[in-house]
């Protein structure tokens, strides 16, 4: 998932949101949780690949801490409505170590099938996740000044409203929040 995680990091930085992308193997999540908590992160996103044996079997899941449900819904909106991708599950889980022990809203987002998705799709998944994070940061007033900045025109664009429409919508929303 290095490609998707790198894409998330680049997209968030492009929008002015500082982020830490951790890609060290941590099979039990203890180090990841400890690092996120020590950094005082505003949110934590764990990205996984699905193990579907073919694209036809794929359907990706999203699991969230109680506090992470709003974040997962913001990403889900971009994922389902604007990019028109499918998702197998979208649910609160309190039995996963990563979700149970983080001190901030946290989600585990499955995207991409091991060995099935071309690199450009994995990059697009990262863009979609980052777009949802930016929307969530603005909606929750954690960073109302952020505006989604789409990738360069040569990159594949998300379906739905144009980039200019999304930017105008986000700027208007940021103004409303700041005036409230």
SSE blueprint and pairings:
Elements: H1 2-14, H2 30-39, E1 44-50, E2 60-64, H3 69-82, E3 87-92, H4 97-101, E4 106-113, H5 119-139, H6 163-179
Parallel strand pairs: 1-4, 2-3
Antiparallel strand pairs: 2-4
Helix pairs in contact: 1-5, 3-5
How does this structure look, described?
Strand 2 (60-64), helix 3 and strand 3 (87-92) form a beta-alpha-beta unit. This protein has one domain (2-179): Aminopeptidase, CATH 3.40.630.40. Helix 1 packs across helix 5 (119-139) and helix 3 packs across helix 5. The protein has a four-stranded mixed beta sheet, covered by helices on one side. It is of the alpha/beta class. It has helices at residues 2-14, 30-39, 69-82, 97-101, 119-139, 163-179, and strands at 44-50, 60-64, 87-92, 106-113.
List keywords for this structure.
Aminopeptidase, 180 residues, alpha/beta, 44% helix
Helical residue percent? 40-55%
CATH class: Alpha Beta
User: Can you tell me the CATH superfamily?
Assistant: Zn-dependent exopeptidases
Q: Gap between N and C termini, in Å?
A: 39 Å
Number of helices: 6
Global shape: globular
Rg from alpha-carbon coordinates? 16 Å
Architecture per CATH nomenclature, i.e. the level-2 architecture: 3-Layer(aba) Sandwich
- Integer tally of domains: 1
- Total strand segments: 4
Characterize the biggest β-sheet: 4 strands, mixed
The fold-level CATH name is Aminopeptidase
Low-confidence stretches: 153-158
Instruction: Give average pLDDT, whole number.
Output: 82
Helix and strand succession?
Answer: HHEEHEHEHH
If strands are numbered along the chain, what order do they take across the biggest sheet?
Answer: 1-4-2-3
Briefly note the structural class of the backbone: alpha/beta
């Amino acid at each position: 998932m290095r490609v998707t995680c790198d894409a998330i990091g680049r997209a968030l930085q492009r929008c002015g949101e500082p982020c830490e992308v951790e890609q060290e193997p941590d099979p039990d999540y203890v180090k990841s949780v400890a690092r996120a908590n020590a950094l005082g992160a505003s949110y934590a996103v764990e990205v996984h690949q699905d193990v579907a044996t073919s694209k036809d079997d794929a359907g990706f899941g999203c699991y969230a801490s109680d506090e992470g449900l709003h974040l997962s819904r913001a990403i889900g909106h971009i994922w389902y409505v604007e990019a028109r991708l499918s998702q197998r599950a979208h649910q609160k889980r309190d039995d996963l170590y990563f979700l149970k022990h983080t001190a901030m809203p946290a989600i585990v987002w499955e995207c991409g099938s091991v060995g099935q998705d071309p690199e450009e799709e994995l990059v697009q998944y990262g863009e979609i996740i980052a777009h949802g994070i930016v929307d969530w940061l603005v909606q929750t007033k954690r960073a109302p000044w952020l505006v989604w900045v789409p990738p360069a025109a040569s990159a594949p664009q998300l379906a739905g409203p144009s980039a200019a429409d999304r930017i105008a919508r986000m700027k208007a929303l940021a103004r409303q929040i700041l005036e409230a």
